[in-house]
Each structure stands twice: as structure tokens, then as C-alpha cells.
Write a structure and sequence with these properties.
The structure holds two protein chains of two kinds.
Chain A lengths: L1 H8 L1 H14 L8 H8 L3 E5 L4 E3 L7 E7 L2 E5 H6 L6 E6 L4 E2 L2 H4 L8 E4 L3 E7 H10 L1 H45 L1
Helix pairs in contact in A: 2-3, 6-7
Chain B lengths: L1 H27 L3 H24 L4 H59 L8 H53 L7 H39 L5 H11 L6 H17 L3 H26 L8 H45 L1
Helix pairs in contact in B: 2-3, 2-4, 2-5, 3-4, 5-6, 5-8, 5-9, 6-7, 7-8
The chains are: A alpha+beta, B mainly alpha.
């Protein structure tokens, strides 16, 4: 029955780890010690067993997760269907300090674009829309700093995606060019 | 996978068990439900102010203490200023109650005689005696129940602010600890649902509170202008009954007409004036208060209103009738939010 009481009786250890994890995380780097303590009182710590689903592709998401310990596998079902594979195509494995699902914090009725599954024993910080609203209402300065960092992360991810799409388009054009050349020959 | 399911099931059972225990305590312990309803009203009324103070850099505890002290002082001042008026009005009512019954008996005797004349003595009602007896018995029951009622009111008014204080201070932590027991597979859904409910209930309770305050103030001011007796009590009563949709305004107006009837039943202008005051309060409510807060007030079907009032009166008497509609409206908000949420979340 230990799993029932994990969140109640590991407070000191949890807070120390939580403080370090939040302080090192890109989203909360600008915050003062006091603000980090405030945020750590707002967010939720969740524990997952190996193979347990954090969220599934297509579900409505309401927040993001930061990995405290363990690792998370990101898979995609649509790719698996096109590749005739069950259980989803493996995309990447995230490790402590990484965060995922942040689009759900800003998008209304955001659908999860991939599956997130615990690879081993995982502890996550869940940071949800309601938590962000509470931070903005009670401590707007800290809220603004978090939202600015969040916007920066989303902007950077958008730029990376655009670069990848451009790269893919260039490769497609190259392949098309090659096939035209071989047809002429 | 089997062990994950088992863990989730145990967590879910523990979570539902704690929730059920809280509900049982709420329903079974005397005055606890009303105390909690009032505590929620205080909590939702003060929470925006507490957040605003906290935003200005004050610690959460002080941000709660300051509005509590200020509101407490204002209430004390209002009670200090109004209580002599209310107590004199209650004293007058208790001394003049018998004369009011006499007036009513005389009026009814006249009606009795008219009926007797018209039916040539074939039909005799004796309504005056029956009604006078009923009113006199009612007064006895009321004055017998008054000490218990006063003690309940005293307990509720002491406990509700106490609960509200800790709901403002530690409510969030309590909810987080409770949510820690929610299984991972339904955690996001539960959290989002709770957030929606919190927002909607907050808006609903603040809107209703404001509505009752404005309606009560209009009625009080209107009746005070014409020196109608018991204007304060009638204003408070109209404010409270305005919480009951459809029939609330009618119930709220009845005592004013009774007062006019007993004090000066020959003055038809007074009846017209009282009608104008109550209609004006309802017009202001419908034209200004409801449109401004329309999205925040839940309308119930007339049948639901009647059913809720019957259930409320069966469970908790007069107090149950007063809180039946706010509780029924809150349940409607909750069920609507759960339904919408379940459809949107998993579709």
C-alpha cells in the first residue's frame, strides 16, 4: 500500500528534489527562490509504474510534465498505423530534466499529438492550466516570467519544426530531381 | 499492467471513500451543511479580494486576515447600527401580534356573516375562529422553536467564518492532498473538472450573493421612504427569498402586504406603493442584475424548482427551502460540467 502514501510522507526529500528540478528547468529559471517555493506549492508530483500511460494521442491535454526521475517514451500511433505496427512508433526517450506536453498549457482543448509512456519507475512534475492560472492570479510577476519562457520554448520548437519541414521539402525536391534525371536517362 | 490497474483501483476506492465520508459528515452532523454552504459563500466572496491583496506582495495569511477584520468590523458596525431598529421592530411585532390576529378575526367574521346572509344560514364557515386558532398555535410553535433556532444560527455564524478562513488559507493544499489519491489515468480529467467547477461555482455564488444584496437594499429603501413598519426585516427577507427563482419574489412580498393589511388596511395607496416597490426591485433584477451576471446564474425549470423546494422542506424544514434552490443550482452546474467535460475529454 506504499504507493498510496508516497505523496504524504516523503515531504522533505520531495521538496528538496522538487526545488532543484524546478530551479534547473528552463521555464522556471528566472524565478527567485521565494517564487520557486510558491510554484512548488502549486504544482503536482505524480508517480508512474513502468509501462503506465501518462497520456494518449488524441486525448484532450490540460498541462505539461517535467521529469524528476526515470524516463518517458514518446510514441505515435498514426505513424504506427501507416507502418502497420501495433503499440505506436517509437519517437524518442526523454530523461530527467526534460519536459513535454507544454502546448496543452496555452492551447484551448489541445489534443495530445503523441503517446507518453513510462519506460521505468518515473516521477513527474505535473504543471497544468489551472496551476498557471493560479500563479498568474496570485503572483503575476512570477506568472509573467513563466509565460515568457513558455512562449520562448514554443517559439523555438516552432522554428525547429519549420527548419525540419524545410529540410524535408528540400530532400523531397532532391529525390524528385533525381527521379526526373533517371527518367530522362 | 495488472498491478497498475490494481493500484489505480485502490487509489480510486480510497479517493471515493474519503469523499463519501466528507459527504456523510456534511449531511449527518447537525448544522454542518448550512455552515458549509455559508462558508463557501464567504470563501467565494472574499477569494478574489484575497488574491488581489496577495498580488500586491502581502503574505497569503495577512491577505486573508485583513479582509476578515475589515468585513467583520463593517458587519459589527452595521449590526450595531441596525440591531436597535430590528429589535424594536421585533418587540413591536410581538406586542402587536395579538391585535393583528384580532383585526384578521374581525375581517373574517364580517366575511363569515356575509356568507351566512347570502346562503340564508345554510352555510356556516367559522373561518375566523379556525384561522385565529391556527395563528395562535403557530405563534406558540414559533416561540417554542425560537431558542433552538437562535442557538443554530449562533453556531453557524461562528463556525462558517472559521471554516472559510481555513478554506482560504489551506483549501488548496487540502485539495492537492486529496488529488494525490486520484489514479493517474483520470488525474488530468479530475483536475480540469475541479477547476471548471471551482470557477463556475465561484461565479454563481458571487452573482447570487450580489443579487440578494441589491434586491434586499431596494426593498428596504423603498419601504423605508413610506415608513412601512419592519422595513429592515422585510428587506432582509426579500433579499433571502430572491434566491428562490420564480416563486421567491412572491414569497418575499407576502409579509409586506400582510404588514400593510394589519397596520392600515383602509389605505389602498399603501398596497399600490408596496406593489410598485417589489415590482421595481424585480425589474431592476431582471433588466440590470441578471443581464450583467446572466452567464453566471443557472436557471432551473419551474418543475425542478418546486421539486427542489419540496425535497428541501422535507429534509430541513424552512432552512431547507431557502438553501434548496442554491444547492439544486449548484448540482446542475456540477452535472453539466461533468457531462460536457466527459464528452469533450474523451471524444
Amino acid at each position: 500500500m506504499n504507493f498510496l502514501w508516497d505523496n504524504f510522507f516523503r515531504k522533505d526529500q520531495k521538496e528538496r528534489t522538487l526545488y532543484t528540478i524546478l530551479k534547473e528547468n528552463y521555464l522556471f529559471q528566472d524565478l527567485s527562490e521565494k517564487d520557486i517555493r510558491f510554484v512548488s506549492d502549486v504544482i503536482h508530483v505524480r508517480n508512474y509504474r513502468p509501462g503506465e500511460v501518462v497520456f494518449s494521442q488524441g486525448e484532450v491535454g490540460v498541462g505539461m510534465y517535467i521529469i524528476i526521475k526515470g524516463s518517458i517514451d514518446i510514441t505515435m500511433t498514426e505513424l504506427a498505423e501507416s507502418a502497420h505496427r501495433a503499440g505506436g512508433v517509437y519517437i524518442t526517450r526523454l530523461s530527467p530534466g526534460d519536459f513535454f506536453g507544454e502546448i496543452a498549457l496555452v492551447e484551448e482543448n489541445s489534443r495530445r499529438s503523441a503517446n507518453a509512456v513510462a519506460h521505468n519507475e518515473v516521477q513527474l512534475v505535473g504543471f497544468y492550466k489551472s496551476d498557471l492560472v493560479e500563479i498568474l492570479q496570485r503572483n503575476p510577476t512570477a506568472g509573467f516570467q513563466v509565460v515568457s519562457r513558455l512562449a520562448e520554448v514554443l517559439g523555438r520548437r516552432l522554428r525547429e519544426t519549420t527548419e525540419k519541414v524545410s529540410e524535408l521539402r528540400r530532400q523531397v525536391m532532391e529525390i524528385k530531381g533525381h527521379s526526373k534525371l533517371s527518367e530522362k536517362k | 499492467m495488472g498491478s497498475i490497474r490494481r493500484e489505480n483501483l485502490v487509489k480510486l476506492i480510497a479517493f471515493i471513500g474519503i469523499l463519501s465520508l466528507l459527504i456523510v459528515v456534511l449531511l449527518r452532523v447537525q448544522d454542518m451543511l448550512v455552515t458549509q454552504v455559508l462558508a463557501f459563500v464567504i470563501f467565494y466572496s472574499l477569494n478574489p479580494l484575497v488574491n488581489r491583496l496577495e498580488r500586491s506582495g502581502i503574505s497569503r495569511t495577512w491577505a486573508i486576515i485583513i479582509p476578515f477584520v475589515v468585513t467583520g468590523f463593517c458587519l459589527w458596525l452595521v449590526i450595531y447600527l441596525i440591531s436597535p431598529m430590528i429589535s424594536s421592530q421585533i418587540k413591536t411585532l410581538s406586542t402587536e401580534y395579538n391585535s393583528y390576529i384580532d383585526i384578521l378575526s374581525q375581517q373574517l367574521s364580517r366575511i363569515d356573516d356575509r356568507i351566512k346572509d347570502l346562503t340564508l344560514g345554510a352555510f356556516e364557515m367559522n373561518a375566523s375562529e379556525k384561522i385565529a386558532q391556527y395563528l395562535s398555535d403557530g405563534a406558540k410553535v414559533f416561540f417554542t422553536a425560537l431558542p433552538n433556532f437562535a442557538s443554530s444560527i449562533f453556531t453557524i455564524t461562528l463556525l462558517a467564518p472559521f471554516f472559510a478562513f481555513f478554506m482560504l488559507k489551506d483549501g488548496r493544499n487540502f485539495v492537492r492532498k486529496l488529488l494525490a489519491l486520484v489514479p493517474n489515468n483520470i488525474f488530468e480529467l479530475s483536475l480540469n473538472l475541479l477547476h471548471q467547477l471551482n470557477t463556475q461555482l465561484g461565479d454563481f455564488i458571487r452573482a447570487r450573493f450580489l443579487e440578494a444584496l441589491i434586491v434586499g437594499a431596494i426593498v428596504w429603501a423603498g419601504l423605508e421612504i413610506k415608513d412601512v413598519k419592519y422595513a429592515v426585516i422585510l428587506g432582509v427577507f426579500a433579499g433571502i427569498t430572491s434566491l428562490i427563482p420564480y416563486i421567491g419574489p412572491v414569497i418575499g412580498a407576502v409579509p409586506a402586504f400582510l404588514v400593510a393589511f394589519f397596520t392600515d388596511h383602509t389605505n389602498s395607496f399603501l398596497f399600490v406603493y408596496i406593489t410598485v416597490v417589489y415590482v421595481f426591485a424585480q425589474v431592476v433584477d431582471m433588466l440590470f442584475i441578471v443581464p450583467l451576471l446572466v452567464a453566471k446564474i443557472v436557471d432551473l425549470h419551474p418543475i425542478s424548482v418546486v421539486v427542489a423546494i419540496i425535497i428541501g422542506s422535507q429534509l430541513m424544514g424552512v432552512l431547507g427551502m431557502i438553501i434548496a434552490i442554491p444547492v439544486a443550482s449548484a448540482l446542475k452546474v456540477i452535472s453539466q460540467a461533468i457531462f460536457t467535460h466527459l464528452i469533450e475529454f474523451k471524444s
